[in-house]
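Field reference: sequence -> structure
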Amino acid sequence: VWILGLMLIAGVAIVDPAVAAGIARISFAATALTGLGLIIFLGIRGYDRAIMLVPSWVMVLLWLCGSWMAITGMLDNDIAQPALGGGLILIILLIGFTVMQHAFAGGALHQGLFSDLERQALAVAGSGDIVWDWDVLRDRVVTKPDISLQLGLAPNSLSGAARNWLPVLHADDRDTFRTTLDVVLEHRRGRVAQNFRLRGADGHYHWFALRARPVIGSDGEVIRCVGTMVDVTEQKKSEERLLHDAVHDNLTGLPNRELFMNRLEAIISIARTEDKVRPTVFVIDIDRFKQVNDGLGISAGDTILLTIARRLHRLLKPKDSLSRFAGDQFALMLLSEQDPARIAAMADAIKHAINNPIT
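Structure field:
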């Protein structure tokens, strides 16, 4: 398009040089202003190459203003024309230098001439981790790729001040997140190693592991904090499942013997100092359960255990606890009742629940 435009102006210049000169001036001014807008836009978004063009474009704008003043007669002296000519040469040299710098930078990539920083950046990009960059001086957090999209939020909604992260952080993680960053800034050393939860657009929380280190400036103060974030949601779910299975019965989902005994020991410790806490423990043993398993099969035995577990659980209040104590035993810790008559009534209810036929 640009080449066609030049050819069009050249054709007009043959017919009417004055009109062609006017078109060229207007197009040059439009190009300069459009380029300025693009440089500002890309510079704000952090593109280094756009920032590198700033000196060249400042010269273009100054030369454009000088040319306009010379054409309109506002600038009329002996050095105006040589100055404008020299300025045009300087602009061409600056643009040529910028183009050469860009070309050599691209050549380094193709030839494998990477610095340690570039090599580390490529390694992070290849690992699929999220780069977490906190510019302390501007208080601006940037993630690459944008973590907002992974959470289903609006693009760049988490780009900005570090406090913008607090509303989407889990309530239990906010103070730790804030304190960790404050400690790094205060002591100017150490590293950030924290797991926290971020709320997605669907309301579900995602676990992330943040590993970052501070960057110290020449004055000894922290100027940046840079690291990586990894989505560890699936890993956390696996850990939670393992922890749950370690202290719960696989068949009924009830707490197992170890968890029940830990709870009982804790309640007994509290009861030594609190008169209102008086636990009552029932141990329920199913008679002839082995004969049922041998005669009717394990499936029938499992059905009996599940049915009894559901019946007993319906008798409990939130304070009480039910456990599968052994293969054919259940243990019930009663905390909601202190009156002996009510405790006896609970025992009768347990007997009735167990004695009901299972169909």
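Note: The CA atoms of residues 6 and 211 lie 54 Å apart.
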